[in-house]
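Hi support team,

I'm filing this because I wasn't sure whether my run with NDP finished correctly. The job status page said complete, but I'd like someone to confirm that the output block is well-formed before I use it downstream. Pasting the exact inputs I used:
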Amino acid sequence: MTKSAFITGITGQDGAYLAKLLLQKGYRVHGGVRRISHPETTRLAALGIADQVTLHSFDLNEINNIVRVIRDTPVDEFYNLAAQSFVGASWEQPIYTGDANGMGVVRILDCLRTYHPNTRFYQASTSEMFGLVQEVPQRETTPFYPRSPYGVAKAYGHYITMNYRESFGMHASSGVLFNHESPLRGKEFVTRKITLGLAKIARGSNEVLKLGNLDVQRDWGYAGDYVRGMWLMLQQDQPDDYVLATGVTTPIREFVRYAAEALDMELEFMGRGLNEMAVERKTGRRILEVDPDFFRPAEVDLLIGDASKAKSSLGWHAKMPVKTLAAMMAQADFDALRA
Ligand code: NDP
Ligand code: GDP
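And here is everything the job wrote out:
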């Protein structure tokens, strides 16, 4: 029998890749789209699937809307990928972020419990919950210490998913996913900001790439690999929580170097702190500088995940190394600028 799935946040990076994967597996795919003045389905279009999914008006912050959509759209699997997903914005909109990323999860879970208790549920949890890390590398049992309103709200979403599993026997799982990127990543996230900025410079722009704290390290993987992990979690007999990560952490400077190399630019970093910059070796031209506007009130300095549970239980591992990822993103931005 044809399986069906509902994806909240289907217009986002992960939503688009997951929709594509599920369509390839023969699922009927429904997606939640919030009402905005100009619906943004460019990612679905980029993957060639915009006309293969059924879209529903859906907002995490609106209980009556969630009740109607969930009641009237029975599915086998429900993936909650929608969120205010940008950590930086969560200090500007902490209450909205808490409502969407925290309360939004329990709104969905409670509707599923009421109308379709046998639907399998996936919650998009995050390595940001580890924040000020209590253990290196981080795994499922590492205590949380979130450092942003985003991380705090996601921790609520994580625990309420676990609680509905334990209270009501629901098949509810959380994926604690480390940063994952792609050419479809939002432009405000650091990887995409870097690849797009460098691609513009390689195309002749005089802009200087302005970044915040260059001292952080992240465990960056490819979104296409990670959505496969989400799907695998819902195919298990028992629900559970899993870390998905590459196990490799990379400083921002290194990611910049990888992207620049892919565009035939060799960079040299010089200076310290707010005076740090990068220049192109060949021309001496300043390519990158530090801008205090992009620093955060509290920082997550180092993330590196241990995905051995996902490997042994799901047979999942991250396939794409970060250097390939940076090159792929830089090349995609460079090619798109030709148009
Ligand atoms: P994106 O920002 O690309 O997508 C977020 C999606 O959520 C968009 O479709 C957006 O809609 C939708 N959305 C935002 N607010 C609401 C709302 N109030 N009601 C309904 N929909 C809403 O994020 P990603 O695809 O990168 O991430 C997917 C999920 O995984 C998120 O929950 C994120 O927090 C989490 N996550 C992501 C990681 C990553 O590295 N990418 C790491 C760990 C967790 P619109 O298109 O209208 O903006
Ligand atoms: P996050 O890990 O979900 O917060 O993903 P981001 O890509 O937004 O940020 C990753 C890290 O890059 C954070 O520690 C940021 O402080 C750091 N960073 C440094 N400069 C920038 C910048 O200009 N933009 C963003 N988004 N992050 C930056």
